[in-house]
Each structure stands twice: as C-alpha cells, then as structure tokens.
Write a structure and sequence with these properties.
Length: about 140
Amino acid sequence: MHPLFTFTSPLFAAASAAGAGSNAVLFGNRGLALAAILAGVAVFIALIALIGRVLAATHPDGGGAAAGQEDAGAPFSAAPVASAIDSVPLAEMAAIAAAISVVLGPKVKIAEIRAPQPAPSVEAIMQMWALEGRRQIYTSHNVR
C-alpha cells in the first residue's frame, strides 16, 4: 500500500483488511454494521428534511422568481385580475383594426377582440390525459 494512503482509523483498517482477502466485517458483527449504515441513512434523511424546513420557513412565497415571475415587492396574488385578462389595450386594438382594414378593406366590421387565454398547466394536461385513458378503459370493457 502507498504511504499516502495509510490511515489509523478503524473504518479504513477494516476496509483495507476486507480488501486484502479476509472476511472482516465493519464492526466485527454484520448486524451491527447494518445498523450503523441504516442509522447513517436515517441521519442523512433527517438532515435533508431539516434543511428543507429551514428553506421553506425562510422562503415562504414558494417560487416567485424561480417560476419566471418578477418580484417587485408586491404580495403574491393567486387569482389573476379579471380586467388584466379580459381587456386588450387600446393601442393593440387600434393596430389590429388597422391591420384588418388594410388586408380585408375598410368596410369590414370587427365583431370581437379578446385577449389570449393563458396556456393550461402541465398538471391540467396530465389530468386530461388520465381521464381520457380511464374513459377508453371503461368503454372497452363489457358491462355486466
């Protein structure tokens, strides 16, 4: 063994003894070794859970800038304002009316201009696919 890799720790000594061809177990007992490994995993999980709780407590808004929203210091609003979705700015209406008048002629009447609807979320799309799959399964089975 290289002199840089000589350790006095019992863990490394047991590992090097196991690598040398002997059947030495970590703490001399397989059950004790398994308990030590499981305890280490439990401590790691508890540490990750604690870090998650600390981060959740210090960052309560749950996503603002990470979800693509600008944080201007205003409180988070879950429901969009109806006037922001339903209305189209006057400058955009004038541009749309001018474009339609140029392309189709001045006698064309515009019946309605609506703002585009927001795209459905990924969760809503997945739910629609799940419902369609259930519908296909139920319609393919014979009713008794």
